[in-house]
Amino acid sequence: MRNSSEPLQSVVDHMAGRLGVSPSRILLLFGETELSPTATPRTLKLGVADIIDCVVLASSPDVAEKSHLLQLRVQGKEKHQLLEVSLPRDSPLKTLMSRYEEAMGLSGHKLSFFFDGTKLSGKELPADLGMESGDLIEVWS
């Protein structure tokens, strides 16, 4: 946040862009309290040491089916290295790989992505591999 009177919507938009999801799926929490995107750090009386959690809400399967988007889970070897990515069925998996590397701060690292035990090159399309929403792609470094 650049200033304490800037609405939290700017944080929502930034995180949505970083995570490759719709801003409507981003939820900001302060402890157990959901924060409104129209609120500002000043109105919430937040200080520099306060921690706001960012949660990505699962989208309903109906929406994903209509838009031809798959919700894929990408999991590194550490539990916290999980990212959910929305990807069109006809989009190369390289897009998903790049989003994961960027979100995890691993750009430039040598990572291998696997689906059902098969190493992925990034040129494959989810539709060609028979991927469905909820499928898991594993990442190894």
Short description:
The chain has 141 residues and is an alpha+beta fold.
Keywords:
NFATC2-Int_DNA_Repair; Ubiquitin-like (UB roll); 2 domains; 141 residues; nucleus; 23% helix; 4 helices; NFATC2-interacting protein; 5-stranded mixed sheet; alpha+beta
List the helices and strands and how they pair.
Blueprint lengths: L8 H11 L6 E5 L2 E3 L5 H4 L8 E4 L4 H7 L1 E7 L6 E7 L5 H10 L8 E4 L2 E3 L15 E5 L1
Parallel strand pairs: 4-8
Antiparallel strand pairs: 1-2, 1-3, 4-5, 6-7, 6-8
Organism: Phocoena sinus (Vaquita)
Subcellular location: Nucleus
Protein name: NFATC2-interacting protein
Give the averaged pLDDT, no decimals. 86
Could you state the CATH homologous superfamily of the largest domain? Phosphatidylinositol 3-kinase Catalytic Subunit, Chain A, domain 1
The global form is: elongated
Beta-strand level of the residues, as a percent range?
A: 25-35%
Strand order of the largest sheet: 5-4-8-6-7
Task: Label the structural class.
Answer: alpha+beta
User: How many distinct helices?
Assistant: 4
Could you give the count of β-strands?
8
Q: Tell me the span between the first and last alpha carbons.
A: 33 Å
Please bin the fraction of helical residues: 10-25%
Oligomer: single chain
The CATH class of the largest domain is: Alpha Beta
Q: What is the rounded Rg?
A: 17 Å
Give a structural overview.
This protein has 141 residues and is an alpha+beta fold. It has two domains: 9-56, Phosphatidylinositol 3-kinase Catalytic Subunit, Chain A, domain 1 (Ubiquitin-like (UB roll)), CATH 3.10.20; 61-140, Phosphatidylinositol 3-kinase Catalytic Subunit, Chain A, domain 1 (Ubiquitin-like (UB roll)). 23% of the residues lie in helices and 27% in strands. It has helices at 9-19, 41-44, 61-67, 94-103; strands spanning 26-30, 33-35, 53-56, 69-75, 82-88, 112-115, 118-120, 136-140. The chain has a five-stranded mixed beta sheet with strand order 5-4-8-6-7. Strand 1 (26-30) and strand 2 form a beta hairpin. The two termini are 33 Å apart. The relative contact order is 0.16.
